[in-house]
Every structure is written in structure tokens, then in C-alpha cells.
Amino acid sequence: MKSKRSPLFWLVGCAVLAVGCSCAGLGGMFAVGTLSSVTGLYVTTPRTAAAELPAGGLDEPISTPPTTAGTARKPAATVTGESTVRASAARSTQAVATPAASRAVSTPTSRPRTGTRGDSGQQTSVLNQTLGFISDDYVYLDYGGVDLKRESARIGGLISSGLSSEDFYAEMKGLIERLNDHHSVFLTPTEVKDEESRSGGFGTYVGFGLDLWRSDDNTYAYLTQVLPGSPAAKAGLKQHEHILRVDGQSVIGSDGRLINFGGPVGSTAVFSVRSPGGATREVTVSRATLENRSRVEARLLPSASNRKIGYLYIPGFDGRTISTDTRASLRDLMNGAGGTLDGLIIDMRNNGGGDLPVLQAHLGLFTAGVVGYGIDREGKKTNISCTAETIGNSQSVPIVILTGKLTASFGEVFAGALQGSGRAKTVGQASSGLIEELLPYDFTDGSELLLAIRTFYMPNGTTWARKGLQPNIPVSRTWEQVTVEDDEAISAALVAVGSR
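and the corresponding C-alpha cells:
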């Protein structure tokens, strides 16, 4: 299951990448006609990393990570123009296809044409291949109400009339968005290069050391992670805080994308920062050369009952070092507690998924066996399982998992599998409900289609697709509404794990 196909689940329009980048997504990859490295459910063929690194986000990579199979690839946070993960009605387990009438059907809208005419032959090839992949592989047989023949004629006619590259990619994005699964996505060549440069967990970049996410109303960005020892950490920035402006400029542009505030090593920027519920303050942060990777965070939490409760923050299941980092962090927690823990809180609130082998490795730290399966449009099942690996009392320690609106894809599969088996309780808000497997198809022009081909189900045949995984213990305040010192979800988790 991992030699030929190394899956990939992907949350489009959200989440965090390597520390310092401001992008997002969950997903997999696929070379045209062949399976390639996927992040979420199946694939593996190494891809060549982009040589050019387009600007994007507050931090800008300056060296390209080496090519790797099986790494998660995340497009820019605004690839689909969505600031929040949207949910719609759940689909039937066996009848994978849902009648088109049961879902809202969007229609193409005209837009002003811009730029010079592109390569019509290449555009036609990408269009035809995309429609073919949808027709052959798309998990939902109603195609979201999209008439593929009509779209072929409509977009084909526009190509014949002369479309610029920008307008063509806008048409392709619109086509995939109209499938209405809120997960599949079409990436332009620039977006593919951007996410490739940030997804390998290798190399360096010049930046502040931040992971960001856009607010629902696109008025600010909030911090999901601050790299320990980074300029941002030294300046006193903390998780959950809001970034309103940088050097007097809004962090979110008119197009909904995070603005690039790149600059040379040693240069500074003035951040307008606000703690949730607090006043705005000005903080000067310098730029430095930093390692391009997300970090697992771990600490022992204070407990009124003197019980040994560990806290583990896992930002995603992508990158080559995450599994190793989690093992090391869990081992440190166990050692710090004298060999065993009385309880463990695993924070998945910003985990947007990643690679199947990484998911399996993480699940294996706490359980074993078949945790669920993917089902395709024809009802064929592919089991997802894990092998037990014991660190301290990791196989028996009471677990509480924190979830939220950014918990997606393999992030929510992890939480749902442990919740569903009774191995863990969940605390927080409902997850995104985006648990399709995305298979990537790469085109010769450098663009890419990430298409939903399977949906995840629990061993008992249930799924939370579109609805989101519901927490055992709901809390009202979300990540951006709390502070490090007053985190409602952690407080509720401490009660649930029996420390209060």
C-alpha cells in the first residue's frame, strides 16, 4: 500500500506548512498516467522540486528542498479563494453517487478577459485530460451536478476564441470548484512551485519563524505556531495571537491571500499584534535564516492533582521529520514523567493531514490493527491499518485529542480512529469533514489537479464526511479566541483525562 501508492489527504485553503510559511492544504500527488507521491491515501513517484521559488506569505524560502516521495504538498492558503472550510450534506456509504438535485449546483460566471493569448494546444490538452480524469476517477458519480460534455464545449470554445494563461487557469479552477466537494482543487504552475518549495521539510528560508492562518472574515491572520528560538519567539509573539498589520500594511490582500513580507537577513518589520481580547501592540521582529520544517511541541502540564499529564502538539503529518520528532517528543515526555504518563493530551487543532505512512506511524504509537478504510466510486474498499510501537505506556495511557475547524484530512482520521475505537476522547469543535483522498495529476504545463477519488470510513461503515468529526466534549472558544495562558480546550481536556 505504500510502495506503489502512498496516499494523501488534503485540506484545501487552510493550514500550516513548514514553520515560517503561510500556506495551507492537505493532499496527494499524482503524475499523469501514473501514480506518484500522495499525501493522504495513496501514491509515490518522486517529483522534481521547483527551481524557482515564488513569493508567498510572511516568510520566503530561499533554498529548494530535495525531491522526496511521499511528502505532503500544500498549495497556497488561498488557492481556492476560501477563507474557511465549508461543509455540506454527508454522502451515502454504498451509494457513493448522490443525486445532483441534493446539492447546490453552481454555474459558470463570465469574467473580464485579460492578458495575451496562451498556447491553445496545451490548454486543450489540459482541459481534455482533466475532464477524462474526472469522468474516470472522481469519487462522486453525480460530478456535483457538472455536465462534463457541456463544460468541454464551453471551455473549449473559449480556448478557440483565445484565452490568456491567467484566464484559462481561472476557468479550470472554476470547473473543479463546481464539483462542489470543497476539497478537490486545480493548481496553477506558480502555485505548484510555491507549495513544492515549502513542503519537503528541508532547506532554509529567510523569515520570522511563524505559521499563520487567515481569520474567517479575512481581517487578520492568527498564529498557529511560533518556531522556538526564532526571531518571532524572541520578540515575544505567541500562538493564538492576531497579526493585524506588518509595517502598517494589512497582512491579507484584496484577493484574500496572505501578503509576502520577505526581506534580507537582519532586516526588521513592525508587527501590529493583538492577543485575543487584548489591546493592539507594536512589536519589531527581525528576519533570520531558519530551517524549513514544522515542529512537534511537547511539555508536561501543571496538574492540581499532581498527576503526570503530557501535552503533544502535532502540526501535520507531512514532512520527513514529523514521525521522528513525535517519537522523540513522546519519549521525552515519558522520561520527564519518570517512565510513564497518567494522561496525554494530543493537540490536533491545526493538523491538516499529510502522508498515509506518517498517519500510520502516529496511530501505531497508540493502537494497532485496521482503523478504517477508503472507498472509491465503485464501492471498492482499501483498508488502512497500523502496527503497534510502544514508547513508555503509550499503548495504554488515557488520551484526549483536541480538534477544531482546521483539523482535516488525516488529522481528523487520526482523531476519529482513536475516538471511534474508544482509545481516546475528543475535546473542542467539529473537524472540517474533508476526508476524501485526493489523487494528484500533474500536467506538462506545470499545473496540477488534486481530485477526490476515495472517502474514509470507520470499520463499522460510518463516516463524518461533510459533517465533521463531532467532539465528545465540545468547547465554545476556537483557537484564535483563546490564549496560551487561558486555553479552554486544554482546561476541558485536563478534566476529561482525570487530572482535575
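(Above: one complete record from the training split.) The first strand starts at residue 60 and ends at 61.
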